[in-house]
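Subject: Protein record for review, amino acid sequence with backbone structure tokens
How to read it: Take the token row as a discrete description of the fold.
Enclosed: The protein record, placed directly beneath this head.
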Amino acid sequence: MGSILGILIVVGIIWLALNLAGSLFSLIIWLVLAGLAGYFASKVLGGDGVGTIGNVLLGLVGGLVGPVVLSLVNLQGLRDNFLGGLIVSFVGAVVVIFVGRIFNKNFGK
């Protein structure tokens, strides 16, 4: 009975470790994706960017704003894959930079 319990504990620990590693990998991929989206958005809108951290933050906020904007034009299913996620984050980052520049002319330049 003790060996079965030990095996179940080891299997549970391995399962947990694999799930945490997958989540960490997803987080890293999302941060890279957000950084690229923020960088591309600042370049398209004619700025030098706001630095690496700023671009990642713009992309992250864009990843939150993008689905809202795209749902207004009925394109919310676009972010189901890597390229779609990049496009959604990019659109959101463009909106964030545009709105930021309305209130502050030097935002993202």
